[in-house]
Amino acid sequence: MIRWLLLALPVVAWAQPSLDSLMASVPRVEESWFLEQVREHHPLMRRAATLQDIAEAREMEARGAFDPQLGATWKDKVYGSPYETQGGPELSWETPVGIGLEAGWRTAEGARLDASDYVPEGGLWSVGGTVRLGRGFWTDKRRATLAKAQAMVGVSEAERTLAENDVLLEASIDFWAWYNAFLVWEVAREAESLAFSRLKWSRLRWESGEGAALDTLEAHWNWANRSANREASQGKFVSARAKVERWLWTDDLQPASLPSNVLPGDAWLEEETLKPTQLWAEDDPKAIAGLWETHPYFQLYTSKGEALGADVRFRREMLKPQVDGTFEMYSPTLPGSTDWSAPVWDNNRRMELKVSMPLFLRQERGALNVAKLQQEQTLLDLQSQEANWRAHIRGTAMRLPHLYAQHERTGLAVRLSRQLLEAEQRKFEVGESSLFVVNSRENALLKAQKTHADATADLHFLWRNWLWYLGQTDLDPQDLQRMLLAR
Q: What is the value of pTM for the model shown?
């Protein structure tokens, strides 16, 4: 029965390519190139760029409230016979200092004009304006809207940076998940290759009569099991690769794909790169305060506070009484004359004073309280965000050296496990060991390789998360080191 099973070994087992031949001359994708492609072409990055464009457009819209207005009116009334015809052009401008200016020319004629509408035959030129002496003197709705729009430009700039960092972090996580899947797949392929070599060696010993058929059957079972594990790990690798490809787009916003034989490139973190993180691990106040003041979250909440500050000032201004003084000067054109004459103040003018104020100011006081509370909420959010940021940045900085040490120790464990396996194989070849012990050494090596692959991926995951907390997701390690040590 055992002989029949051994003779039924699949042909594919004897045609397995070597691991070295599979890995030779394979193109690699580096993380830096990958993130650059995401930054340049991904739709979410382009969408993030529109956040600031929208804020700048809204600022332009708010500035439009101060644009001069050019207009004209014309009225012609006939009721059986001509009553009146009057009108003319006018120019008005609400200045950014709370003064409204107006200028215009008006003509009027007709048998039944109202006495207040009479003007000289050549028309009437006028220049005037409105000065807000109470409510609206320091600020008004137009100026408050403009101040908030200007502050929201800073908010949108911070939101754009945060959105870009989120995209790059997620893309980087997918890249290192792909890299981890590749390492696991590589371990599984090496395990299959070792099992295949053991199977071939055991079969030759069995055919020559030097080995037991049961050893060959066990080697066959071991190869089949590891081949199944290799298929599973290869499936995970292909799935992780598909997640990486979803981040790649062309210039014309079409999804792109990687070449079929491309693999993730190696990007080892050096211990020297992690040295500046000790500034955070030691809770260095200069390092933490210096970078927090340039962090997008700080800019976000600070700009929000500025926008709410403009609203508080406007609501406080609304508590004042409305005192509007209007003045207007007319040209002293004599009746029957068509000569133009500049408006004068001495005896051709109009003045008006308007005063009003709500008795209880409940609407104004309520709006002011809401604005103050919203401003206080933003300050509390800023303080909470800073505390969370400090905790995460310091905790991650403290963990990074330990994860790097784990990465180094697991690499050492892989090398030692390989040496033990080679020594055990030599003992087995001279009859001083058993196939069971050799398989145990192989399993120990494969487990050490899997642990090392996980530690390598975890190290890069944590490093990218730390850069995300700094607000510098795609910052080059060398640039980061220079920036940190310069503080």
A: 0.79
